[in-house]
Amino acid sequence: MPKPRTHRLGELQLRIMKILWADPQATVGTVHEALGGADAFAYTTIATMLRKMEVRGLVRHRAEGRSFLYRAAVDEARVGGSMVNHVVDRMFEGSLADAVAHLLDSRDISRAELAQIEKLIAERRKSL
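Above: the chain sequence. Below: its structure as tokens.
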């Protein structure tokens, strides 16, 4: 079985993907405005990034008149899982326990959130 593709996205690429996951057909202008318009990025920067992301297989486009409509070509859950797995493998040498311990030590957590994590662990334990 082939190894699942690892998706490593830069900050701008991830922001663009989030826009496309929320709006499945967006023009360069729509993405540009959602990112803050000319105050944040040049229009050409976004157009270039979308073309590069298409070459990488992250997005696809179709022509509509003189505009291109872009859409995500990869699933949000798959990208998120791939990015998290990459961090666990690289930073924690594959140890999920070490990754979770780091998160618990370095972030504030509410009782509700901790209860939710405990519930997830209990559910996983049942399936083993």
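The mean pLDDT is 92.
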